[in-house]
Amino acid sequence: MAIIMERTSFGHYFWSQMDHRVFLSLVFVLSGTFNVLVVKWANQQQVIGSDGKLHGFQHPVVFTMLMFLGEFLCFIAFKVGRLVTNRRGPGVEMDSILTQNSGEFHPLSMLLPTLLDAMASILLFTGLYLTYATSFQMIRGAALIFVGIFSTMYLNNTLSTRHWLAIFTMSCGILDIISLDVQRVDYDRYTLPHTDHKSILAGDMLIIIAEILHGLQYVYEEKQLKISNAAPLQAAGWQGIFGMAITAILAICMHFLPSVMPFNESSRAVFDDWSDLWAGLQDNAPLILALIGFTLSCAVYNFIGLFIVMYSSSANRLVADGLRVYFIFVFVIVMEWEFLNLITIMGFIIMQMGIIMYRQAIFVDMYRAALARWQRSRYVDLSADAAAAPNSRPADVI
Taking phi first (over 0 means left), then psi (-120 to 50 degrees means alpha), and beta for anything else, what does residue 229 get? Predict the structure, then answer.
């Protein structure tokens, strides 16, 4: 009877530990899905530029600035949470997950990952403008390859044969997706501003370069967050501050940087024309609301992403992030944004096989971690009972 009760209590403990993880992962996936879809929708809009002509909404630096603005909102939330906690008095414990403040955390430790994120995000938004939303999300799975490689260099992780086989499988899936996109553009041109082979190939290659930078960023963030034990809100907030400063400098440069096709969809043929932005947003309420929603969604997405990195790993963050490709597939099929053929689905299946192989034991690892925590908590409880009654005999367990 006692054994049955112990198993039941463990089951309750395990699911209570899983509830918040499932909820945060779901919010993380949904916010990431919204980010991709709203950017792709904005890219399809034809807005009036500063020259009075219609242009595609190509503003990768603007989207990057809004992303960091969303992260800066996390810093405001962190400060408000600290203020509310301090006013409650010293007798009230602070929620360490949201507002803990470690003395070992140095804001400058977030400068390098923010710089990598800024460069990678500009490349990503440019690539998304040139390629398909589904291809964009599938190719983003390449970040797991580079996280695995960089983690062996900076986190002293060891990749087994299973990991290397998974990396090889994911690489085959990415090559299949890229080669298909070059052929797919001949009959699927609905969401693309440029329908030549070179443009879509350039978009896919920009995404791969961005994921190399993101892989290095995620590994560095994991190392810094676990060393400093900083609050995810605090780390995300400082990334927002540094990111807005870095992006502001890049925005000035990109506003005057002459570009060539297909990166010059603006009135002045520059990489990102801010004068076109102000002209395009005038009397365009849907686009303004979409940009506001994107900013708020980025705040949630990046905060939960850092939370997963701090309390789990960068690989688990990417595994959770990879789930949004399913939502994107459903959306583009229902809305008829893209035409998906059998070869597209095969490339997607190959990519997912590699991801599953890389993290095939993720649920087993979570179960073992929950079991270990439950056993430690039970040991502490038994030790406390023994200290309270040192001469008492333990009850027999049947």
Answer: left
